[in-house]
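Open question from group meeting: does this chain pack into something compact, or does most of it stay loose? Before anyone orders reagents, we agreed to write out a predicted structure and look at it together. Recording both the input and the output here so the notebook holds the full record.
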Amino acid sequence: MNNKFIEELSLNNWQPLSTIHYDGWILRFADGYTKRANSINPIHYSTCDLNYKIAECERIYSANCLPAIYKITPFVHPIDLDKILESKDYSLIDTTSVQTLDLANLNEPTLNSTKIVETVNAEWIADFCRINNVNDQNNGVLERMLSNIKTKTGFISLYYEDQVIGCGLGVIERGYIGLYDIVTDLHFRNRGFGEQMILSLLKWGKANGAKYSYLAVVSNNRPALRLYSKIGYSEIYTYWYRVKDSKTY
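Structure tokens returned:
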């Protein structure tokens, strides 16, 4: 499977609140919650004058009280867009590793203190926002985004002594389960809970037809990289963001 396919899945399964298709580029909007859902994705051929188009995208995002953010993958059009944006004083931030895993020889989880529901609910949202320090302003945005996902979803909660200490999301499409928003309570990290939660979520994905998995992790997140490597994930490509006003992020 080619890497662009994985990028397509990631666009489908982390849904914004609205999109604009502009001359081959996909402009995503979600009231500022996460760069992935509020960025310009230039993945199809562009025909307009590029300087005009970049200025117009800046105007559109500014009108929505957002900075102009470009997600720069190996699939951008035009291929020299990253250098062009750099020349226009766009800063590079958050280099990210996209990784995949074959589920054929998946290890069995040894903890069974997990619960997976297939529709997002207020309880999961509250636990996730508490653990991941999502502010109240974004709670409703997150719930609307997750409700927009149109493929099969699994919302996992990991319990320890009747307390939820970890949350995550798996989305299944075309034989792949994508992992999103995997987070463990700060006070319970480095104790193997994250690995058990991921293995449980992947087991659910496999039972529901997934043969492979993918995820994205920021390249300077050493603990997460070690964890995913231990499970068996390996990098297939990287991407980063170009931001007009890096102070916003």
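Observations to bring back to the group:
The mean pLDDT is 93.
The first strand starts at residue 18 and ends at 22.
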